[in-house]
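User: I'm curious what two different proteins look like when written out as structure tokens. Can you demonstrate?

Assistant: Sure. I'll show them one after the other, since each token string lines up with its own sequence. Here's the first protein:
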Amino acid sequence: MDAKEFREFGKAAVDFVADYLENIRDHEVLPTVEPGYLLDLLPKQMPEEPEPWTEVLSDINRVIKPGITHWQSPNMHGYYPTSTSYPSIVGEMLASGFGIIGFSWICSPACTELEVVVMDWLAKFLKLPEHFQHASDGPGGGVIQGSASEAVLVAVLAAREQAVLSCKETHPELSESEVRGKLIAYSSDQSNSCIEKAGVLAAMPIKLLPADEDLILRGDTLRKAIEEDVAAGLIPVICIATLGTTGTCAYDDIESLADVCQASKVWLHVDAAYAGGGFALEECAELRRGLDRVDSLNFNLHKFMLVNFDCSAMWLRDANKVVDSFNVDRIYLKHKHEGQSQIPDFRHWQIPLGRRFRALKVWITFRTLGAEGLRNHVRKHIALAQQFESFVRNDSRFEMVAPQALGLVCFRPRGDNENTTQLLQRLMERKKIYMVKAEHAGRQFLRFAVCGMDAKPSDIEFAWTEIESQLTAHLAEKSLAEVARKPSNVSDLTQHFQMHLASDGGGTHEKSQ
């Protein structure tokens, strides 16, 4: 492919993406394909001769798009948002065009220095403590990781190595292998699965402590666990707290956890992958309490900042602790500008050696949307979640499971777990909206997350109509089945069926037939 064909292919691809996103509501959010569908549609080996790009683009529409779950659809309400925007897509395209591997400053000075700039911009925008900025007098700063999973693993590994160094000084009678065998870490049983996985990868057990009834992890629980483990001869290393747990977007009590961590010399990391977007809003100022006392934290720009995946911001109070833990230098990696003030070699701040030019899409997005545009985006998600919450509270057949938090509402049909299971199954079979289920204390519930590139109030109304109408249909069928198991006559069955169709709990819907 030469430059002329590239221009033609590229322009056609941009038109394809723009048309797709502009008309995304036309697609059912879930695909209808079965496992293995693509294996039967594509050749078993690559083509021997080049094929025209027009055929390739045609096949994207023919065989690829039918197998896509439409994450940018406003009818996507599962997990958490994975956002994108037109400026971010352009930034991704430009970064791909430059094709650089920015593992050191000399490999592309703009790659390193733009990351320093945008990470300080973001720290100020989120009102983080000043010591997390590269421009501060201290050793702190921010770096762009691929995902929250990577950021958490970096924190766990760095804390582990710092603990090993410290224990070798204070307990010289122990061998390094003996020290490593005694290390222990902590998090909440409401934390993301990536935290437990980080413990597996770091060969260090992470004890998942029970959150309180309100799903919040507090210092008293951590203190008790540390005291028990120390008495058993273990060495506490790190606590990973969560602001915005995966299940219910609960916020751990950072201040009380910080008290315990400081007293026990335990690293405190905060996973704010989702809720970190709220830091930017004064009405969410409580979320920032205690952040001045943490050692590191992460926030996914691809959740709330309209930057496409993958892009996770991580800040460190003392970056030297990570650099000292990860630093492996070879002669081919050295350059004469190493060690200069405020010019980090970010390869020492991460797991891989190579680095993508992620800062470019961040910079373009921030400039074209502005701080106020980003704040408005977060506020819109909150308002839409409040709209959905009002629907739930006004329908007596449903109940809230946890307080509405940012763009997430956790709710369930009243009654046993079977109602929740059957409602979700109906919704997934219809493929109009997408949600996922969670569970706490034996109760299953549904998570309604505001997602999509440009969700609107009408999309929330559409989702609610789908949900409550399907509950109406389920309860009617359930009632008929119960009546059918008892001696009855035709008039009894008809009466029960009509009663459940007419009962909408105060909601508004089209009656299912």
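Here's a second, unrelated protein for contrast:
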Amino acid sequence: MSANPQWDISRALGVAKLFHLVCGVRDACVTPFLTLYLRQLGLAAPWVGILMGTKHLIAAFWGPFCAFLAKSYQKRRVLLMGSLLGSVGASMVMVLVPPLHGVPGYRSCNASDAATPTAPPPRGAAGTVTVTAARQPASSHAAGAPSPAGESSTGTVDAAGFRKAPAGTVHAAASGPPGYARTTSPALHTVTAGERAFNEGRTALPLLAGGPAPGSPANLSATQGNAQGLDLSLEGLHWTFLLSLGSLVFWELLTAPLEQVADDSLYEYLDFVDATDRYRSLWIWRPLGMSVGVCGVTALVGQLECVLMTNGPRGVLHFYGYSLVGTLALLVSVAFPVPICRRREPSYKTVKALSLVGGAPRLIVLALTVFLVGAATSAVQNFLFWHMEDHGSGELAMGFSVALGSLGEMLLHPFKATLLRKLSRPGAVGLGLGCLAAQLLYYSFLWSWWSVLPAQILNAVSSGALWWAVKASVEDLATPGTARPLGAMFQGHISGGGSSLGSVVGGFVVMSFSLAVLYQACCVVLFLWLALFLCIQPRLPQEQKINYSKLLVMEGSNTSDSEQGTERDWLVKAMREEDSE
């Protein structure tokens, strides 16, 4: 078998491990920090939510479609290498998107402001631009960025580089909108150019209404101070948003097919020689690469940002790292195992899996659960780094938080079988939902950047154990030949659709209220669904499928040769029931 390079299993598994490791490092360079880069461009939360929602939607439907075409026309290796090569070039297009004029992401690299966070928080108080900033990063003024309209310029600068307001300053009028800051304590709060343009547009466009009335005291100074630059700001915002949208769509169209094409190719390669049991052990290499890459790239960016550039968003360096590691992945993909022989299989498995979901109550409940989990998870993935940045976090701490979550999942994996056996499938799903809701509630009460780290350990249950239970439930409820298509539908279409909707809605909730309100709302929704899930689960009909191989083994061990002719009727009956479904 090893004489034929097509079936050299040891070599194929080694190349697959290296490929998944490199792809994990590549994704770690940009994916966790993409929304942070969009914020540095000056885009407010609603625009970032629309961009990320579009990205998730393309990944959910375009990737499986391309994988189907590549399998039908035997062009998997071409698509694999083309996706890697195209994503390297498309990522560089994102670097060419011009930011809004005077965004705080552009700063000098002086020693005094190298560690000072400059991007402002997307607070609900940003619904108006008359916020009086009590504490503001001094580096945003050092870079030449103009002060937001209505911002107080009085006060002193403390040793940490923040402007301190005079004592007794009141930050909001009594007639302010809901979520408007009402405090006399110092607060880290500024307004980006993108948020100003978005809020100005809200007063001019009825479609985006929701802020205070144009004549209210909270918005009067903003109208007077920015009336002359309104058209210019909106025009710059539109250009930045449209170019970001076009670049992101082009990039995702090229990147989306990669993961599913690689997984399908490797699975079929191992299936030809009955070695699919070794396929399950390869999952750990991608999160391992993500953990190593997300810490390594942030440490490297911190060292090189002032060496390679002096005036630009620091997120640009992440795209350079993505292109470099993507080129390495392209070289590895030349030897990636792709089956040459074509096995004739029905092409309607996805349609059959979809019809199976529509006719099984347990799968319907599970699909709704996965949809809600995808929507809630998008709130964390899109805006958690914004929350950490508002509390003074650097990118290295952000990267370490991602690595900590992946590490917890890898450490819990050896106990996967025991966990699913002790808790049952619905019990593990319920535990994952509860942990995810608890995480979101915890995030809404953060008091410093390091307080995020303890909650990341819960990712082992809220992400790892939850998806283990979902996959095990799908395998139990799937008919023969539909387990993989059904699992891909849950992890791709359903979860991706939830992430898309959650990103769009979450962006507008952040702008209208705050990040804390978004997390608390997601927490309430998940707890309500958890209560409903646990109530209706025992009342759903049992739909456990028959495992024919186990029954045959039991039949051969428990019956004598004289009884075999009369006791095999159960097999005929079971096959007839299977055909009638």
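A detail about the second structure: DSSP finds 22 helices and two strands in the chain.
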